[in-house]
Amino acid sequence: MHVDLGNALETTPGLTRETLERLDERVANAHGRITAGMAGDEFGYAALTLPETADPDAIRATTDRFDRPEAVLTVGIGGSALGAATIANALDSDVDAHFLDNVDPDETRALLDRLPLADTVVNVVSKSGTTAETLANFLVVREAMTAAGVDWTERTLVTTGEAGNLRALADAHDLPALDVPDGVPGRFSALSTVGLAVPALQGHDVEAVLAGGRDAMESLSGSLFETPAYAYGAATYALAERGALTNAVMPYAESLETFAEWFAQLWAESLGKDGLGQTPARALGATDQHSQLQLYRAGPPDKLVSLIRPTERAEAPIPETDLDGLAYLGGSSLGELLDAEFEATEASLAAADVPNLRVEIDRVDERNLGRLLYEMEAACVLYGELAGVSTFTQPAVEWGKKAARGLLGGGDFPEADAVADKRELRVDGS
Ligand SMILES: O=P(O)(O)OC[C@H]1O[C@H](O)[C@H](O)[C@@H](O)[C@@H]1O
């Protein structure tokens, strides 16, 4: 990716060239820590070696056991769904990808009613093998398959850790199974079996995704001025230190809309600790120019906007028209219009002194997606190093998971007792 920090200089909050140069010494130290973590295969840092350690042949050998399906249904949540969803939703395929990452009964029922279950691969993913939402959804899906006369054991792929309920299920029914790599938290697992099985089932080039990750891995250096991932991580960190507590991520490409969701998990779960962090907000250009942009430009000066776009787009000419007021559009294209909107938003934010960062990728394809995902992970790890937080843990999320399991009778978790302590101040409707 290419990062332009120019519109974060002298804004409110803002950076200066000198601030960045001073910060670059800390970036060099952090880079040393990151490369040592990678070399030692340390927990979390191991994610940044995935472009070399992930085995695309093993993924293909497993996914090739299924004839090309009509659809893939992934049952997983958080890091076990969003990486695959980002890639699947960015690229065209005649194999539809669906994601059950919530336990909303209406949505689950509606999806199961319309899926061609006999020609769907069910891809159930959980690193821990214990996540209640995922396992509950899988039980519902399995029952729906049986009710439709489909042998679920023939249509199910499991991706999980070494032990746990899902591993036991895969072993008991001799299901095709992929291993979640060791030492890689879910939100950092897009470039592994977790993120790549769905694209493989859809016929995408997973080697190219990993090659993009490798390009990014090889581009890491000890200076933010030479490494776009670190430029992004260091600038977002320094802006947060100066009061940019929200990072509004605004891709100008529908194909990257899910990327913003993936980014939100990465940023929030990794960096939101010890009273620190930066709230990721999700927006989409140009659509949200007509809604959220008002706040971003004229609201409290507590945010930065990350404007993201591919520089190469599909051709879609706008037809000529004899309507005078619209003549300026004729002969142009939808892509040119979207790019003009991008530049206009960037300029409008800069004119109002709102810091914004331009992030560009060459095009939306396997290689560039692999590179983007890796670079944002590296940016996040760098931010975590600079902020001094424990990037790879998520104790607050675990707390809620335990409380929910305790409430459902899934074990004795003191966290569940807190539900009884809830304060009330109700206002009831008639
Ligand atoms: O893959 P699983 O073990 O099912 O976990 C799925 C998700 O659960 C939790 O909420 C974690 O905080 C996420 O980081 C994780 O991705």
Fold blueprint:
Layout: E1 2-4, H1 17-39, H2 50-53, H3 56-63, E2 71-75, H4 82-90, E3 96-100, H5 105-114, E4 120-126, H6 132-147, H7 152-155, E5 156-160, H8 165-173, E6 177-179, H9 193-201, H10 206-219, H11 228-241, E7 246-251, H12 257-271, E8 279-282, H13 293-298, E9 303-310, H14 334-351, E10 356-361, H15 366-387, H16 395-407
Parallel strand pairs: 2-3, 2-4, 4-5, 5-6, 7-8, 7-9, 9-10
Antiparallel strand pairs: 1-10
Helix pairs in contact: 1-11, 1-15, 3-9, 4-9, 4-12, 10-15, 11-15, 12-15
6-O-phosphono-alpha-D-glucopyranose binds at residues 77-80, 126-128, 131, 134, 185-187, 269, 394, 397, 401.
Mind explaining what this structure looks like?
The protein is α/β, with parallel strands linked by helices and 430 residues long. It has 16 helices and 10 strands. A 5-stranded mixed sheet has the order 1-10-9-7-8, with helices on both faces. Strand 2 (71-75), helix 4 and strand 3 (96-100) form a beta-alpha-beta unit. The chain binds 6-O-phosphono-alpha-D-glucopyranose (G6P). Residues 77-80, 126-128, 131, 134, 185-187, 269, 394, 397, 401 line the site of 6-O-phosphono-alpha-D-glucopyranose.
